[in-house]
Every structure is written in C-alpha cells, then in structure tokens.
Amino acid sequence: MIDIIRQRRSIRKFTEQVVEEDKLKLLQEAALRSPASKSANAWEFVVVQDRSLIQQLATSKPFGSKLLETAPLAIVITADETKTEAWIEDCSVASVFLQLTAQALGLGSCWVQIRGRNHSDEKTAEEYVREVLEIPSNLSVLSIIAVGYPAQERRPVETADLQWEKIHSNKFGVKE
Ligand SMILES: Cc1cc2nc3c(=O)[nH]c(=O)nc-3n(C[C@H](O)[C@H](O)[C@H](O)COP(=O)(O)O)c2cc1C
C-alpha cells in the first residue's frame, strides 16, 4: 500500500486506451467497499464513459475540469445529504479509495472538485453536472474522479521533501 501511495500523483493527460471492463468492475467494487459513517452508504456513483458526456463534464468549471477532456472514464461521486451529515467525508473517502485503486491497477487519476465551485455566474458546478447527467436534485455532487492510462509521467515526491514539520508528537508543537 505504501508503494501505491508513494507513486500516486494527479494525472491530467490520458492516452486513448479505454479502461478494461475487469478494471472498471474493480473500481466500482472499491467505491462500494469504502467506509461510511454509520454505514449510511448515502453515496451514488455515476460511471461515465460516453465521450460526449465527458466532454460536457470537462466544462463543469472555468478552471480545473478541463483535464477530463482526455479521460476515457469519469466517476461522479454524489450523495443524498439528508441521509447523513457526514456525506462530504463519506464521498471524500470513496474518492480516495477510487484514486488508490486506480493507481494499484496501473491507471492514473485526478480529483475534480465540484462541491462549492461555480460553472458560471448563474450556475454552480453541482447544478451543471446534475443537468448534464440527469442526476436527481436530492443528490449533492462532491467530485468527479477522472481515470485512464497516464499520458504523462509524474515523479513521486521524495520522502525527504514531505512536510515532516506537520507531525506533532503527543502535544502540538512537540517534535520527536
Ligand atoms: C479535495 C480536492 C480537490 C481537488 N480539485 C482538483 C480540481 O478541481 N482540479 C484539478 O486539476 N485537481 C484537483 N485536485 C488535485 C490536487 O490539485 C492535487 O492532489 C495536489 O496538487 C497534489 O498533487 P498530487 O495529487 O499529484 O500529489 C484536487 C484534490 C483534492 C484532494
């Protein structure tokens, strides 16, 4: 697992190779196995492979969603807020489970933030994504995980370059 965590970097350019069915199934399984507060499992995942829909998702935001343009797969993470107050946490955990599983399968991924972002002056990114994919209005949209075979190489951050100063020992500010 630590090797998968070390190797994972956000990938924003993908090759044209489609994600095979068996890998897609494993990604779906990983999402459904993600832990959720009180086992509410309030999430719903929209698996998008249709090219024209992915192109529309790529314009969800003025910045930060264009990377979807080359992605052969986009997994949209939504949840019913009325089912749990921890929906943001639950959807975030599922998003990261998807990213780490993608890495383990030799795929690249990138998180596209939707919650709290705007599509335009008139429309939130959530409203836009809901419209494009006909997602019911009771579901909130947290993120889109772009997945595909990497068309760019990104080196892992060196272990020595991590922000080790952010680790505190027993009491805040105390270093080991
Ligand atoms: C909550 C969250 C929201 C993010 N939103 C976006 C986004 O909208 N667009 C994007 O290109 N990257 C997005 N990212 C990816 C981050 O920019 C990236 O994880 C960060 O720069 C660290 O780089 P790394 O993933 O390669 O380690 C997001 C990541 C997280 C965790």
TrEMBL record:
Protein known as: Nitroreductase
Entry-linked InterPro entries: Nitroreductase, Nitroreductase-like, Nitroreductase/BluB
Domain of life per record: Bacteria
GO molecular-function terms, A-Z: oxidoreductase activity
UniProt lineage: Bacteria, Pseudomonadati, Bacteroidota, Bacteroidia, Marinilabiliales
Organism: Mangrovibacterium diazotrophicum
Domain Nitroreductase: 5-58, 62-149
SUPFAM superfamilies named in the record: FMN-dependent nitroreductase-like (SSF55469)
